[in-house]
């Protein structure tokens, strides 16, 4: 089975621009989560989508948004980019509900490295 | 309060030795899951091992085992017979409320950078 794929892998933008990142989950996985990783804040949860619906959202401003399509592929968008948005953006997919009601493993993609100048 | 605490920012270990990476967690949920991920310099997070709060046995996956002490709220990762390829960042993560379908959020610790010395 192919793993989680993310495009593009690297991106350079300037302040004020917007950006769209794409994530294709493992085949059959219906949940897609997004995380931001920075040296200062570490790994932080952005949001999670399941069956085209956002189920959970982290503590990020409204400039960060996302969506999920009927084939479970997901996109996240950041508008009006700021220097602090420079980060590694990781997407993870899983197939909830988990084993016997337990937690299902999230499998991560390679990430998109975004640099805002 | 930090939900996941990893107190070892960096560790150096001789090749072929065993290594223990510490992780303590804080939750009031009875139903939760604990994960360990490895992140090489390439950036991808690689799943290593999972322990559910109701699992009575410590989880094992090949050279990885999880030393789960529920009363102490600790979930340390043990890597046996370390290899040069084990050099990476290691993250402990928790998902709370796992009995509730719909909570996929992982909370991560700050990580431990493990370096294996030949």
Layout of strands and helices, then pairs:
The complex is a heterodimer of chains A (117) and B (118).
Chain A lengths: L4 E3 L2 E4 L5 E6 L6 E8 L3 E9 L2 E5 L6 E5 L5 E5 L8 E8 L12 E2 L3 E5 L1
Parallel strand pairs in A: 2-11
Antiparallel strand pairs in A: 1-3, 3-8, 4-5, 4-9, 5-6, 7-8, 9-10, 9-11
Chain B lengths: L3 E2 L4 E5 L4 E3 L2 E2 L6 E8 L6 E7 L7 E2 L2 E6 L4 E6 L8 E9 L10 E2 L3 E6 L1
Description:
The complex is a heterodimer of chains A (117) and B (118). Chain A has strands at 5-7, 10-13, 19-24, 31-38, 42-50, 53-57, 64-68, 74-78, 87-94, 107-108, 112-116. Chain A is mainly beta. In chain A, a hairpin with a 3-residue loop joins strand 4 and strand 5. The radius of gyration of chain A is 14 Å and the shape is globular. Chain B is built from no helices and 12 strands. Chain B has strands spanning 4-5, 10-14, 19-21, 24-25, 32-39, 46-52, 60-61, 64-69, 74-79, 88-96, 107-108, 112-117. In chain B, strands 2, 5, 6, 10, 11 and 12 form a 6-stranded mixed β-sheet that branches. In chain B, strands 3-9-8-7 form a 4-stranded antiparallel β-sheet, with no helix packed on it. The relative contact order of chain B is 0.33. At the A-B interface, strand 4, strand 5, strand 9 and strand 10 of A face strand 5, strand 6, strand 10 and strand 11 of B.
């Amino acid at each position: 089975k192919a793993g989680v794929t993310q495009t593009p892998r690297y991106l350079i933008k300037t302040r004020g621009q917007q950006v769209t990142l794409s994530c294709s989950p493992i085949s059959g996985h219906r949940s897609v989560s997004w995380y931001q990783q920075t040296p200062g804040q570490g790994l932080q949860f952005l949001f999670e989508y399941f069956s085209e619906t956002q189920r959970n959202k982290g503590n990020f401003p409204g400039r960060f948004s996302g969506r999920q399509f009927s084939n479970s592929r997901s996109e996240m968008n950041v508008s009006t980019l700021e220097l602090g948005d420079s980060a590694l953006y990781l997407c993870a997919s899983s197939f909830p509900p988990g084993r016997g009601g337990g937690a299902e493993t999230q499998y991560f993609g390679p990430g998109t490295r975004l640099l805002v100048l | 309060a930090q939900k996941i605490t990893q107190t070892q920012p960096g560790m150096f270990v001789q090749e072929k030795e065993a290594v223990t990476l510490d992780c303590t967690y804080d939750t009031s949920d009875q139903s939760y899951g604990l994960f360990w991920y490895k992140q090489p310099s390439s950036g991808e997070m690689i799943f290593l091992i999972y322990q559910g709060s109701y699992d009575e046995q410590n989880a094992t996956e090949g050279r990885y085992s999880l030393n789960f002490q529920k009363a102490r709220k600790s979930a340390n990762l043990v890597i046996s017979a370390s290899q040069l390829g084990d050099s990476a960042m290691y993250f402990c993560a928790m998902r709370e409320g796992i009995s509730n379908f719909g909570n996929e959020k992982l909370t991560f610790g700050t990580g431990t950078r493990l370096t294996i010395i030949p």
